[in-house]
TrEMBL record:
<protein>
    <recommendedName>
        <fullName>Polysaccharide biosynthesis protein</fullName>
    </recommendedName>
</protein>
<feature type="transmembrane region" description="Helical">
    <location>
        <begin position="173"/>
        <end position="191"/>
    </location>
</feature>
<keyword id="KW-0472">Membrane</keyword>
<feature type="transmembrane region" description="Helical">
    <location>
        <begin position="109"/>
        <end position="129"/>
    </location>
</feature>
<feature type="transmembrane region" description="Helical">
    <location>
        <begin position="386"/>
        <end position="405"/>
    </location>
</feature>
<feature type="transmembrane region" description="Helical">
    <location>
        <begin position="135"/>
        <end position="152"/>
    </location>
</feature>
<feature type="transmembrane region" description="Helical">
    <location>
        <begin position="351"/>
        <end position="374"/>
    </location>
</feature>
<feature type="transmembrane region" description="Helical">
    <location>
        <begin position="197"/>
        <end position="214"/>
    </location>
</feature>
<keyword id="KW-0812">Transmembrane</keyword>
<dbReference type="GO" id="GO:0005886">
    <property type="term" value="C:plasma membrane"/>
</dbReference>
<keyword id="KW-1003">Cell membrane</keyword>
<dbReference type="InterPro" id="IPR002797">
    <property type="entry name" value="Polysacc_synth"/>
</dbReference>
<keyword id="KW-1133">Transmembrane helix</keyword>
<feature type="transmembrane region" description="Helical">
    <location>
        <begin position="27"/>
        <end position="48"/>
    </location>
</feature>
<dbReference type="Pfam" id="PF01943">
    <property type="entry name" value="Polysacc_synt"/>
</dbReference>
<feature type="transmembrane region" description="Helical">
    <location>
        <begin position="319"/>
        <end position="339"/>
    </location>
</feature>
<feature type="transmembrane region" description="Helical">
    <location>
        <begin position="411"/>
        <end position="429"/>
    </location>
</feature>
Amino acid sequence: MQAGVLTARLRTLAAGNGVMARLMRGIIGSGGVWVLRLAMTLGMSFLLGHLLGPTEYGRYAYLVASVTLFAPLCSLGYDMLAAREYAAARAGDDQAGEAALARTLPAAVWKNAALVMLVFIPATAAYNAWRGQPWGTIVLLEALGIVLTAQLRLAQGSLRGLGRVSQGQLYQLILPPLLNLVLFVAGLIVLRPSADLAIITFVAGLALACPLALRAVTRAASRLDVTPSAEARKVWARSAMVLGVTQIMFVANEQVPVVVTGLLSSSTEVGLLDMARRFALFASIALNVIALPLGPILAEMYRKGDMEAFRRVSLQTTYAGVGISVTITLAYLVCGRWALHLIDPQFGAAYWAMLVMCLGYVINTMTGPVPLALTMTGFERDAVKGIVGGIVINIAACALLVPLIGHMGAAIGSVLGQFVWNSILAVLVRRRLGMALDILALFERRGKVAA
């Protein structure tokens, strides 16, 4: 009975073409996709951790983190640019010039990827050879994974700006891990479980999903018939550079702990850290689910000058995110160790690192959608300032602590980085937009009412 009432209430909220209805439809669609994606990636980690143990699982986790970390160097912010500019076209901005984005941006990403690979492949091969690790086929697979992930990021951003949030998530977040899981299980029929098999099926999943995603963007954008001017192209290039730095820093804040642990410690420590991170990601589910449909809506509100609605919608997402992330963290406090032991008793050592990383995601949700607010209103340069500060702290803390306390040091470094950059961005949002989007706004508002 209660489930039926809740379903009816959600359908009522999602009806119509208003801001909240659009946001609710995006949340319902993207929420299911995000939960499914987390379930699949955690399921894959569970399977690999159980079959391979922390050490071999750590080899696989390190490559996946490396691919995720370097992919934004190839996409170079064009995914965020596409989301913003397509949203502007849908709002009726004649200067956006979005139709050609679907034709020009994939080529731009391929060019960036070629330049990045000219440096990445020989540098990675030389480093692996110096450490006595495989440096041939494994490096080429890693490079291919980076390029394919960059194109999938572009496709997801484009579809997001075109109002097809769930479709964008399908191609970037659902299809690759699903294909990876299916191919890996199929491979077990004829091969023994190994990190190498998992790496091959991971890249194969990306290779199968990429052309489908780019084709979906071309079809969706063909309805927009706007030709960009030369000046518009220059503006795109400048914005893409700044957005690219922002995106790289975002991803680096997540992946640097794993990569630094792999560089300074053992594969076992990488495996423990990544498993802790996979579980802790559920604490960030609310803000991540809301952010995908929220970005284009905030961009549209800002261009229309409706800042009160901008503030109200942003604060509502902050309150929802805090409540959900705190609840999940408390659940892990009670039963997290038991869940890790189900995979393999050795993964029980990741319990405290998991709780520490959950704390970082709670801090992230408490500051609200401040990075999104800055990038979707044209203040991406300010967003870079806070993120750079956070990533510097993250790298420094990981480099200092990982040799001393292993994966726990990387978890602590991650939290310190998130605290610094979210605090800086919250202050910058107050200065640039004249509003507070963090949890402190609730207490400030109550204080004014009481006064």
